[in-house]
Fold this sequence. Notes:
Blueprint: H1 6-14, H2 22-49, H3 54-57, H4 61-78, H5 102-116, H6 121-134, H7 137-160, H8 173-186
Helix pairs in contact: 1-5, 2-5, 2-6, 2-7, 4-8, 6-7
Amino acid sequence: PCIYPMIPITLGILNVQTDKSFGKNFIKSLTYVLGIALVYAILGYVAATTTVIFGQWLGNPYIVAPVVIAFTYIAFSMFGFYEVYIPSFLRNRTGGNKDRSLISIFIMGALAGTVAYPCLTPALAIVLSYVAKQGNPILGFLTLFVFALGLGTLLIIIGTFSGMLNALPRAGMWMVEIKKVFGFMML
Length: 187
């Protein structure tokens, strides 16, 4: 369920609707998901090489407070109080439909992986516990890398076949209301 709200964000970041090439769309989508996967793979590596228990982190107010602030900030944006934009260094400098670089797509994927982390905590805690118990850094890295690829499969499929998005309903007032519902859920 944590992946579904990321679909419109992913499509906006990838800017895939302007490109009709399945190959280019696939490469962009895969690069984005690889950014997400790297974040989780690093978590797996850290879990396997340290005695850090990630569940303890989420009980720490110094970790929870910034996450709460970030989600509150995003929720109020979804209510329409202000707009949140992609940082200028990751956006097109031309403002046109030119492709974003694969590096900026990868960075945005890594940021998306960081944002999705709190939503995935129950499943992630189980996988991280297994990896920590095994104590093998390579296994930890690969296990969480594959875990993230599994999470991102839907994003790769949607990004690759985004040319078919014309069949979806057009934006309108219904979308503003759905955005508010997601804002409430995030809050």
